[in-house]
Amino acid sequence: MRLGVLGIGRIGTFHARTLSAHPDVDDIVLFDLETDRANALADTLGAVAAESVASLLAQVDGVVIAASTSAHAALLEQAAHAGLPVFCEKPVTLDLASTRHLRQLVAERDVLVQVGFQRRFDVGYRAARAHVQRGLLGRVYTVRMAGHDPAPPHEAYLPTSGGIFRDLHIHDFDILRWVTGQEIEEVYMQGAVLVDDMFTRHDDVDTVVGTLRCSEGALGVLTGGRHNPLGYDIRMELLGSLDSVAVGWDARTPLHSLEPHMPPAPTEAYRGFLDRFDPAYQAELHHFVQVVAGHAASPCTMDDAEQALLVALACDRSRVERRAVAIAELQLQPS
Ligand SMILES: NC(=O)c1ccc[n+]([C@@H]2O[C@H](COP(=O)([O-])OP(=O)(O)OC[C@H]3O[C@@H](n4cnc5c(N)ncnc54)[C@H](O)[C@@H]3O)[C@@H](O)[C@H]2O)c1
Predict the structure, then answer these.
(1) Phi/psi at 49 (nearest 5 deg)?
(2) Hey, which of 8, 11, 30 would you mutate to test ligand 1's pocket, going by the most ligand atoms within 8 Å of its Cβ?
(3) For 172-196, how does the pLDDT look when each residue is reduced to its tens digit (9 = 90+)?
(4) Fewer CB within 10 Å, N side or C side of the chain?
(5) Distance CA 110, CA 97 (A)
(6) Ligand 1 pocket member 89 (CB < 6 A)
(7) Is 9's C-beta closer than 6 angstroms to any atom of ligand 1?
(8) Going by C-beta distance under 8 Å and a sequence separation of 6 or more, which residues neighbour residue 231?
(9) pLDDT at residue 295, rounded to an integer
């Protein structure tokens, strides 16, 4: 099998390495608008660097879209017209109209799309979902989520990112739906710029807190941000009528207790997303190889992308208008 990777930045480089080492992948073909990046990685991996998106699409069996978010819609559309299975990084697009258009297009053309919600492949989150599904948690009362980056991205990333909810917390919205099996119905978010004034320049925030109300009554609470001096902190704690469990709480969690006789802050705390989710990123691409081979269905579809985007857009509105926003408000919006 021959697979293409579009966009050879932070995550595209990682995905290209994973695919290049995969036993079922014979060749990979790379393309980036910055041709030096694709050429350099192609040399390192013994891969092919394509001259254009069209030439890449013409020579592969499936494609991974890992370019900047603002480029996803056009690339996904081209791949769909080529009839290729697509792995697309999150968020698929930043607005409802284009996400809905693409969802319809891929449905009409019967094109399989797997969205890059890698937490669904993380061992801890999978165990949490199984715990809920097997009834071991009982009725879900509350879900506490933390999503804290160690350091802000470079400023050039911000204008194309969609802001903190669509860029970073879209993972929390997807995984809350997936673990609890409940839809998010209403959100109330607050944001602040406490880390770096560059976020103000891009009408974004770097620190957030908020609440989420789910369809079967569970209440979620989220804290997040772009700076954590101890490392990359991604956690979910579920409290139900029968149990209380945590995901992302281990010897490397960037957090320490001030109670006596407890361990000090970890010296090997998670440094970033590639460190924390390395096995999950690999597992999601192994799954995509199975999708391309026709042996598996997509576990994260365009419907999931649209649901998570709706929540992120509601969070943006809630933050700006400083009020609770029902997801239905956005669902009713014409696209
Ligand atoms: N799943 C995750 O946890 C995760 C983590 C990081 C990034 N991402 C997502 O992956 C995407 C890329 O993020 P990144 O951090 O690697 O960004 P990046 O800025 O490091 O890299 C983006 C690359 O895309 C290239 N590019 C832009 N437009 C292109 C086009 N039309 N065709 C080909 N290449 C193009 C740029 O030249 C750059 O090399 C974003 O959508 C981001 O949200 C997901």
Answers:
(1) -100, 120
(2) 11
(3) 999 999 999 999 999 999 999 999 9
(4) C
(5) 20
(6) yes
(7) yes
(8) 150, 252, 254, 266, 269, 270, 271, 272
(9) 97
Tokens standing for 106? 């891929």
Report, as an integer, the average pLDDT of 256-279.
Answer: 96
Cβ of 10 less than 6 Å from ligand 1: yes
Cα 261 off chain centre by: 37
pLDDT at site 334: 60
Indicate if ligand 1 lies below 6 Å from the C-beta of 167: yes
pTM for this one?
0.96
pLDDT value for 249: 97
CA-closest residue to ligand 1 atom 15:
10
Centre of ligand 1 to C-alpha 12, Å, is 7
Which protein residue's CA is at the shortest distance from atom 26 of ligand 1? 67
Average pLDDT of the chain, as a whole number = 97
Share of the chain above pLDDT 90, in %: 98
**DSSP characters over 162-209:** --HHHHTTHHHHHHHHHHH---EEEEEEEEE--S-THHHHTT--SEEE
The answer on pLDDT for 331 being more than 90 is: no
Half-sphere exposure of 99 toward its Cβ, with a 13 Å CA cutoff?
24
When pLDDT is averaged across residues 239-255 and rounded to a whole number, the result is 97
Tokens coding 132: 């809920």
Q: What is the pLDDT of residue 160?
A: 87
Give dist(CA 278, CA 202) in Å, integer. 30
